[in-house]
Amino acid sequence: MEPMFRVSEVYFIRPDALEALHNSTFKSVLSWYYSILLEESPAKFHIAKVIEIPSDVRFDDDIESLWWYHDSLEKTFLSLWKEVRGEGIKFNEFLKRYRYSERSFLDLKIAIARKILGKCSFCEWRCGVDRTKGYVGRCRLETNSYVHSWFLHIGEEAPLVPSGTIFYGSCNFRCVFCQNWDISQEHPFGGIEVDAKNIAVMQKELTRNGARNINHVGGEPTPNIHNILESLKYLDINIAQLWNSNFYMSIESMKLLIHVIDIWLPDFKYGNNECAYRLSKITRYIDIVGRNHRIAIEWGDMIIRHLVLPNHIECCSKPVLRWIAENLPKDRVLVNIMDQYRPEYKAYEYRDIARRPKREELEEVYSYADSLGILWREISR
Predict the structure, then answer these.
(1) What is the mean pLDDT of the chain?
(2) Domains of the chain, first to last
C-alpha cells in the first residue's frame, strides 16, 4: 500500500537530542527503550507476535473465554521478554530464533479489542455503546480512526526526538485549556479516515525517515486501541511503541497495551478530583490515572508530563509530584515539569487559568521536585 501522503523531512536534529543518545541518566532510567533504540532489541509487539495461542482458541468465543486465554499467556510473554533482555538478543537474531505465529498473542489481543468495540469500555467512561453499528459515546468515534497529521516531531523530550508522531482526532476529556482543541474538540473528524493498514503504512514511512519511536497521541489514542493493535500485525520493522495519553484507560485497555507498549508518556494533570472535573469534566481522576501509572511502570519505561497551571501549585502541582514520589520508583521515572502553559480554547472563561504561570510559581514547583528527589531537571531543561 502506498502512503496517502508523504511524511515531511527533518532537516536538523536538536543538539540535545543527539546528546541524549549518550546521556547516562536517560540510558539508565529508560533502559528498555534505549535497548531497542541503540542495541536493536525487538520491540515488545514482536514478542507478542511469536507467542502462539492454543489451537482450541476460537476468536468468536465469548469475551470472558478470550480473556482467560489472554491472561494465561502472560507468563509466556514475561519469560520470553526476560530472555530477550537477559541475553541481549537483537532483532535479526530474534527473528531467526522465533517465527511469527499464524495465530499469535497479538491476534488474540486484536480479537478482544474488536469485541470491546461492540460494547465500548476502552476508557473509564465505559459508555457501553456498540461502535461497530455506528453508535458513539464520549469519544464520538465509530470504528475507523481519524489522523489529523503524522510527522517527525522535533519538539518532544530529547530522548524521543525525532519522534514519529501520529495525531489521532477526538478525545474523551473536555479540557477547557486544550492546546490541541481543534482536533480534540471542535473538528475531531477533520483528518483523514484510516484503518489499521493505513496506520501501519504511516509507521513504516516514519521509521524509514528516521523516527526513534512511534508516538501515538492526539487528541487521545485510547479510543483507537483496536486499530493501533491491529496495525502492529502488519508491521515488520523494529520500532519502539510510545503511548502519549491522558491515561484514563480502563483496566481492560491496560491489559491489552502492556505487552506491546515500550515507553509510556502520560499526562498527570491534576492533584485532586475536583480540579479535574472542573477543568476537564472528568470524574475519579486520581484513582484511575494513579492506578494506570502504577501498572504501566511495571511494563516499560516512563516519562511523566506535568503541565504547571497558574494558581494551581498547592492543589495540583505539589500533590502530583508528591504522589509520584510516594507511589512510583523514583529511579525509574523521569518527570517533565512543563512551563509552556498558555491560555487556549476556553481558558479565558476561567479566571484562575487565564494567564501564563509566573516565574515564581515555576521556581516553587522546581524546588519542591528537588526536595522530593524526583528526576526532572535533565528532561525538563
Answers:
(1) 95
(2) 15-302 (3.20.20)
Q: At what angle do helices 225-233 and 105-117 cross, to 10 degrees?
A: 150
What is the spatial distance between Cα 20 and Cα 13, in angstroms, rounded to a whole number?
11
**Do 181 and 171 meet the contact criterion of CB atoms below 8 Å apart?**
no
Could you tell me which of 343, 258, 344 has the C-alpha nearest to residue 71? 258
CA–CA separation, 94 and 88 (whole Å): 10
Chain segment 91-109, per-residue pLDDT in tens: 999 999 999 999 999 999 9
C-alpha cell at 186: 471542535
End-to-end CA distance of the chain: 41
How many Cα atoms are found within 13 Å in the side-chain-facing hemisphere of 143?
10
Return d(Cα 222, Cα 190) in angstroms, integer.
18
Read off the DSSP letter of residue 7. Answer: P
pLDDT tens for each residue of 156-208: 999 999 999 999 999 999 999 999 999 998 888 889 999 999 999 999 999 99
pTM for the model stands at 0.95
283-307: buried (b, 16+ CB within 10 Å) or exposed (e) per residue?
eebbebbbbbbebbbebbbbbbbbb
Going by C-alpha positions, the residue among 224, 311, 217 that lies closest to residue 264 is 217
Numbers of helices and strands, H then E, in the chain: 17, 8
CA distance 87 to 5: 40
